[in-house]
């Protein structure tokens, strides 16, 4: 099994914990060490796995030292959590990239079976591809969210890379991708053909300015996500502290932590990956805080997925354009959903009625005879 391939945490990271207070995270999670071996997985909620696979990155990446992240993460104090966490060490590169994909897929499959969420840290963004393939074993439709400055539909000659892996996913068989949402894209990094493809497939995209101006509007996107991937080229140079290779425009450090918190709160997210990491001391600290906020979000989950509207939900009906739209509001979390009805059964993967996450603003828009864009795109994807 691929778990046997995992390499223990380096002793340097462990030695420094001896000087830390007993309350810090590093002294309160399970660790894969050379002396104790791989920790027992049963009962865990979240595990951390390091990656160093950049061979298909396309970009000129400096190898990221995940052990420096560990030192920064271990010294943080936990919140008021009842979350069981383990650091499983690092997955070494296979003899070729496909071997690495296979190992990630196998590890992801077994962790999903055990209801454990892995956070994969490091490597290139195409490491998301084998996590998508995990869902083929479960015959489950997949919603993916990518926090990225570009769409990654580029059509290069190579089979797959860090900027073309989405092309591979939409061509993969059987295709179980129901929706792909990009958060933080910047127009000048996206080819016209990629934008046309996003529109043709009725995928969702939220531009950088919208994400920064109101990060709370991204919460429904994460609520419906199965896989969340962060391409850290989305950061501004100030956030990454990389003025030479960084971006003049990008997501700031506070916003990126807010996004990881929403990813953690989502009852549905099964996998998270943080990739294309710049090697700067500031990145080490920011990455530690991103993981902290994901765990914080996980500790605040409402356990409302799968959604059952028979109890604890208020139903609202809105008539517009010769049809009735149904909205539900949770009395527990005060979050909103809207109902999609697959009356035509043109998409037999979708049950007759399904719910998609939305905002109160979507409901208010419908009351003013405006069809919410997320509803429109979802209906088109069903057909």
Give a structural overview.
The protein is of the alpha/beta class and 383 residues long. The chain is built from 13 helices and 13 strands. The protein has helices at 11-17, 66-74, 97-113, 128-138, 165-171, 192-200, 208-213, 219-223, 237-240, 253-265, 281-299, 360-367, 373-382, and strands spanning 30-31, 46-51, 85-91, 117-122, 142-147, 177-185, 204-207, 227-231, 271-275, 313-320, 323-330, 336-341, 353-358. Strands 1-3-2-4-9-8-5-6-7 form a nine-stranded parallel beta sheet. The protein has a four-stranded antiparallel beta sheet with strand order 10-11-12-13. A hairpin with a 2-residue loop joins strand 10 (313-320) and strand 11. The protein starts with 10 loop residues before the first helix and ends with a helix.
Question: Topology of this protein?
Answer:
Elements: H1 11-17, E1 30-31, E2 46-51, H2 66-74, E3 85-91, H3 97-113, E4 117-122, H4 128-138, E5 142-147, H5 165-171, E6 177-185, H6 192-200, E7 204-207, H7 208-213, H8 219-223, E8 227-231, H9 237-240, H10 253-265, E9 271-275, H11 281-299, E10 313-320, E11 323-330, E12 336-341, E13 353-358, H12 360-367, H13 373-382
Parallel strand pairs: 1-3, 2-3, 2-4, 4-9, 5-6, 5-8, 6-7, 8-9
Antiparallel strand pairs: 10-11, 11-12, 12-13
Helix pairs in contact: 1-2, 2-11, 3-4, 10-11
């Amino acid at each position: 099994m691929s778990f046997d391939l995992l390499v223990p945490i380096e002793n340097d990271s462990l030695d420094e914990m001896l000087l830390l207070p007993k309350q810090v995270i590093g002294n309160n999670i399970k660790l894969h060490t050379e002396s104790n071996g791989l920790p027992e997985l049963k009962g865990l909620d979240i595990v951390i796995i390091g990656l160093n696979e950049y061979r298909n990155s396309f970009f000129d990446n400096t190898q990221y030292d995940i052990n420096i992240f560990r030192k920064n993460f271990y010294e943080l104090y936990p919140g008021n959590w009842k979350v069981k966490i383990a650091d499983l060490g690092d997955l070494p590169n296979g003899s070729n990239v496909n071997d690495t994909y296979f190992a990630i897929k196998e590890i992801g499959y077994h962790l999903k079976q055990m209801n454990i969420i892995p956070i994969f840290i490091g490597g290139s963004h195409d490491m998301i591809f084998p996590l998508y393939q995990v869902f083929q074993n479960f015959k489950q439709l997949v919603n993916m969210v990518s926090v990225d400055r570009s769409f990654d539909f580029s059509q290069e000659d190579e089979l797959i890379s860090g900027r073309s892996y989405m092309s591979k996913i939409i061509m993969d068989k059987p295709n179980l991708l129901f929706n792909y949402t990009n958060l933080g894209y910047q127009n000048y990094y996206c080819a016209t053909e990629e934008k046309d493809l996003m529109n043709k497939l009725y995928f969702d995209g939220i531009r950088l300015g919208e994400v920064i101006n109101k990060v709370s509007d991204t919460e429904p996107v994460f609520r419906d996500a199965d896989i969340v991937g962060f391409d850290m080229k989305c950061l501004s140079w100030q956030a990454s502290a990389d003025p030479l290779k960084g971006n003049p425009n990008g997501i700031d450090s506070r916003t990126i932590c807010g996004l990881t918190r929403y990813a953690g709160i989502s009852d549905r997210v099964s996998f998270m990956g943080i990739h294309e990491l710049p090697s700067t001391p500031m990145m080490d600290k920011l990455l530690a805080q991103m993981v902290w906020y994901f765990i914080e979000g996980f500790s605040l989950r409402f356990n409302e997925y799968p959604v059952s509207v028979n109890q604890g939900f208020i139903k609202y009906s809105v008539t517009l354009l010769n049809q009735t739209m149904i909205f539900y509001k949770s009395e527990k979390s005060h979050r909103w959903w809207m109902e999609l009805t697959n009356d035509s059964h043109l998409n037999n993967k979708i049950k007759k009625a399904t719910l998609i996450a939305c905002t109160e603003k979507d409901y208010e828009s419908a009351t003013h005879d405006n069809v919410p864009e997320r509803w429109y795109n979802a209906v088109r994807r069903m057909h």
